[in-house]
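Suppose you are handed a protein chain with no further information: no name, no annotation, nothing but its sequence. What can you learn? This example shows the usual starting point.
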Amino acid sequence: MLKKIFEVIQGIYPKGDPFVIQHWNTYVKNPSLFTSIKNNMISDPLKFKNKGAVYAQRKDKAQENYQFVFISILEDNNVLVVGKTSFWSSRLINGTRDSDEDSTFGDLIKQYNIYRDTESAKKVISHYNDNSIDIDDKVTTVIIIPIDFSDFARARILKIRTALFLGHNPR
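A reasonable first move is to predict its three-dimensional structure. Written in structure tokens, the prediction is:
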């Protein structure tokens, strides 16, 4: 299944070098566990190198912003979400640490059980035909594709989204 998803990604965005994160529901239920993975991802020279841009509303708060496409996969290998988001380095450009960014992961970590009225949560409930399920337990894998947003068009995300969607099992 992942092989097929990687083929789709490479066909649409050949610069994408994805991270695969298994047991995603563990991080959703305890987001602080994701901090070390996020820090490792940012420092990975092959995946996020030169793909961050300086983000700042004030000069003293300037820090790197890393944008990526993410694909959330259910336990039965159906694709739930293809989206784009970003996160920031916890190091400011001036070298100081921004503790506010330790647990900031953009739209990546979303507790569907809390926000059951979102489109994605409703799709999971409908897919399993069970309104009482623990939705977060069903999202088991996430693929993160770092993007160089200097040359990345939204149309590419839509192509990936069209190719991989809930109800389509890409085996």
